[in-house]
Specification:
With about 150 residues, the chain is mainly alpha-helical. The protein has one domain (about 10-145). It is built from six helices and two strands; from the N terminus they run E-H-H-H-E-H-H-H. Strands 1-2 form a two-stranded antiparallel ribbon. The longest helix is centred in the middle third of the chain and has 23 residues, at about 80-100. It is globular, with a radius of gyration of 16 Å.
Length: about 150
């Protein structure tokens, strides 16, 4: 992702990476401990980020505060891919929560493993799978729109 000068339509990539670390940690807790209820924390946070905006998420606010505290300079990036990725995270959290609540542990685990891998890629390598899909869609869709 490239840094952007997109006015107010931007988010801090460093906060997003820290958010991914939280998702990774909570996903691992879900997968490796008897505390499966943590999926509901992820569901609530993804709901706030996906339905409203990441700036309203308690996790995002805490991570922003931590970055401010250590005087880390923000890295502003174009928001729509990250907002799309939050919606994908919300979809995964809903699916995992439904399977977990229904007692269907194996499908819940499979989706949780995928979410864990995506979160790991974001926080460790700054590779956002949701952003990649968003960018790919617009590369494919843009030529079609131009022909109309």
């Amino acid at each position: 992702m490239v840094e952007c000068k997109c006015g107010e339509n931007q988010v801090n990539a460093k906060v997003a990476r820290m958010n991914a670390l939280v998702v990774f940690a909570l996903s691992l807790i879900f997968l490796l401990t008897p505390y499966g209820w943590v999926i509901y924390l992820l569901l609530a946070d993804f709901f706030i980020k996906g339905a409203f905006h990441p700036k309203y998420s308690p996790v995002s606010r805490l991570n922003g505060w931590i970055l401010d505290l250590i005087e880390e300079e923000p890295k502003r990036i174009f928001a729509p891919p990250k907002l799309f990725a939050n919606k994908v995270g919300l979809a995964f959290a809903i699916i995992i929560s439904v399977f977990y609540t229904a007692g269907l542990w194996v499908p819940a685990e499979v989706f949780a493993i995928v979410l864990t891998i995506f979160a790991f890629l974001e926080f460790a390598f700054e590779f956002c799978m949701g952003c990649w899909v968003y960018d790919l869609y617009y590369k494919i869709a843009s030529p079609a729109k131009a022909k109309k």
